[in-house]
């Protein structure tokens, strides 16, 4: 009976929220259109062209057996540290390089290939999703803060926080796993890895053109879903602000900001960042009442938490593979706390000393990269990204039409 009432209340709540959202769209059509265009521009210029190559290459590497090959080689590292198979190392590296939500997509793909158990997939998805370096150095540090040097402390804190989450989530599901038959970890063996590579390739006897077409079609389809979520949450964030709900809910964050010894003026920017990291990071950078270190700590939390927009994307991807979302959400909270803490602890050695020109033990290439390569890469992405997006959307349409015609021909 209680479950029945709970289901009814859930139905009423969802219906009410959808009705309120539709009503607010009618009341604020101009603001909704502006927010929708802003989300579309972000997807069109940045998200699509930056993620698509990684998605396509990942699909091909899985099909050719390269991921299985790397899995055998990385097993001695990933199994003791994170309690996941060696193939998790590939998802981890690609997730850090390409950003949200690549880690979730690769985890779901490996799970569907039966290279991960359910618990291992939940562990892997929890620490393989992160912001990519291009966004941290190019958009946030150089773009919003106009301070490329800040990217170093943000990036180091972000990825150290991710590793810390992985080390904690290794204990997730350990009791349930102990009741199951354990997989015996293999030692490093290059001949066995090569045999695994060959066997995996032979299993997939499709021609190269078919594999490439399937990789493009699957990647673009995922990115279309991601674009829909970006636009939806951009509009939702704007409507919450227009209806003054942001001002009503933001005070709840003030108590947490006081505990963290951060200015209360960061409440609305952080609240916006909980929905969408780009807008939140930009608003935090424009808060004049906060010192730079306080802005950096708040930005680190927002980047690590990912925002409900990213989490909705991940939830959709994981749901298709029947992987639970709850461990991922808990991991994002942990990642936010870890990243903010590391930013505070590393502020003096990684920012103050390097900004003052004092000698440190940081490699020279890390000093040069924030101001040059990442910033230039971000500029080129915004300049030529739309052309790449348009080309692959046309290619996707052609592949879908071709597949449909071939299906009709066989029937």
UniProtKB/TrEMBL annotation:
It comes from the Bacteria. The keyword Transmembrane helix applies. The chain crosses the membrane at residues 51-74, 81-100, 150-173, 223-243, 296-317, 329-347, 384-401. It holds the Pfam family Gate. Keywords: Membrane, Transmembrane, Transmembrane helix. Residues 46-143, 223-319 form the Nucleoside transporter/FeoB GTPase Gate domain. This is Sporulation integral membrane protein YlbJ. The lineage of its organism: Bacteria, Bacillati, Bacillota, Bacilli, Bacillales. The gene is ylbJ.
